Each structure stands twice: as structure tokens, then as C-alpha cells.
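Lecture 7, part 2: worked example. A protein chain together with benzoic acid.
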Amino acid sequence: MTKFKRLLIAATAASLTLSSLSAQARDFRLGLITPPPHIWTQAANDFAQELNEKSAGQHKVSVFPAQQLGNEAQMVQQLQTGALDMAFLTIAEISNRVPDFGALYAPYLVDDIDQAAALLRSDTATQLLEQLPGGVGMVGIGYGMAGMRQVLSREEVTSPAALQGKKLRITPFEPIRDFYTALGSAPTPLPLPGVYDALANGQVDAIDMDFDSILILKFYERANNLLISNHMMFPMVGVVSGRVWRELSEDDKTLVRTLMRSHLDSVIDRFQQQEKSQEQQLRALDIRITEADRSTFADAINSWETTWSKKAGSLDALRQAAADIKGS
Ligand code: BEZ
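Predicted complex, written out as C-alpha cells:
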């Protein structure tokens, strides 16, 4: 984030502090699936603290990490009824309900984490959020993200073709299921908190994952073959229940939007900053590394495109935005 942007956010938040004082005090609940050490959870805690400070103690946010309130499908239901106020969600569950969001998971839509960050900050990606109130009854505040997707496996995988027939853990959502089905593997949907045990007890042969989670959740202890493929970006979205949003004053809406957006944006910054060094950390471990690129996934990508070009109307616009970023 630029210095100017930080100053602007601070100034907006400061000017809202006084005018928010008369608004109704709220005790918000924010759910997410990531464990306490994860950057998303840290950002949720930082947002909670800053909202409390900037509302002069009026608003509190209790953060429930690690699926304490249920998996994402359950949290989406709670957000729809207003039983849950806020969440940081993978786009996975959203794309199951609003297929246009599946376009964000187009294989090799972007080549690296910097392009992913730029695309998620683009107007084209931001406009997608306008579909959330009508599509799922939530207000999309902004995007965060995790690192680019890789494949970690128990046995050596010399190329994507070697994943055929393998039980491969995926985050539970359709675009990634279709990608690995097209590759000939057996995608096994499993939320993040269950992954370590599934690898340890042999329930899965391999996992679709990012560098950060492989390191902080120590998945490399249970599988020591890493296929560095960077095949997809992994957006996250910060949302507020539509029902809850309607009850907020205009000042509170602006305060929540401004602060949550700035913490989501910091998540993007942090993943951008650490991606290369985390790759180096993994390369320094005692694990076998293989690299793969778009050409080695060509057939699976073609099959994915055939399905998702019909389902996700925003695919062409996102591809154009990504091409502009690559060419800039
Ligand atoms: C996953 O499902 O792989 C995942 C979810 C949230 C953050 C990082 C990874």
C-alpha cells in the first residue's frame, strides 16, 4: 500500500471516529477457517482492534478462527440469516453459489503473485463484488489472497501427468475440482483444518496448497515432494452479512468498509512480500522439488476452459485485465 493511501485511510478513519460516537454500539462476530498463526487471522484480529479503537470502544469484533463457527458453507448460511456478522472467506464457497467468481480460478489466469495482486486490485475484479448482495446476501468489502497454488505429494511427482489416479486434496469448490478431474486425478475436497491428518494417515496422496500454508502448518513433515506450478491464484474476500449491513449507520458502514479494506489490502501486500522467500525456505528443506508450467497442464486447461467459459461470464473481461497487467 502506498504512503498516500495509508494517510488517506487514517484520515478517513479519524474523521469518522467522532461522528460514529453517537451510533449504536455493536458486538460483531467475524468467522474464518484459517488457524491463529495464519496471515488472514492476524489481519482479522488487527481489523478488530482498529475498529474498536477508531469507534472509541463502541464497536467490538470477536474473531473466530479455525472453523470454530463451522466450515465456509455453514458460515455463508449464518451470514445470510444474520447469525454471523462478518467473515473472511476463500472465493471457493462463493464460486459454488455465484459461478461467475469461478473465473478468478482460471488456471494460469496470472503467472505470479504480483500479477495476482494487481488483478485483484483491478476494477474488473472489484466489479465482481457487486454480485454478492443479490447472489448470496452479503456485502463484499474487498479482496485479500493467499499464495499461488502448488502441489505437495507423498510420493515423487515428476510432472502433472503423474498425478493421474492420485487422491489429491482440494479446497471444496467446483473450479478446482474440474481442473484436477480433467488432469485425471481423484480430487478429494477437504477444508484446510483437516489437511495435516489426511496427509499423515494416507487419506490423500497429494494436496493442492500454497507455500505459506505448507510452511506454517508444516505439511512438508508429511509429504516431501513439491511440484512448483503456480497454477492458480487464491483470492479471499472480506464480507459483511447483508442483513447486518442494512442495520448500520452510513458512518459505521464507511468506518467498517475503510478499515476492513485496508487490512485486506495488507494481506495482499504480505503475501506479495513473502512469496519468493517462502519458496527459498522450502527449497532449503530436505524435500524433492519439480517445476511445471502452463504447457504441462495444456489438456486440463483446455477442458477447464470449455466448462467454465459457459459458466463464468466474467472470464473474458478478467482475462483481458490480466493481459493488460502482463503487458504493462
Ligand atoms: C486452502 O483451503 O487450501 C486454504 C484456505 C485458506 C487459506 C489458505 C489455504
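The longest strand covers residues 138-146. Residues 33-34, 90, 146, 171, 192, 209-210, 213 surround benzoic acid (CB under 6 Å). Keep this in mind for problem set question 3.
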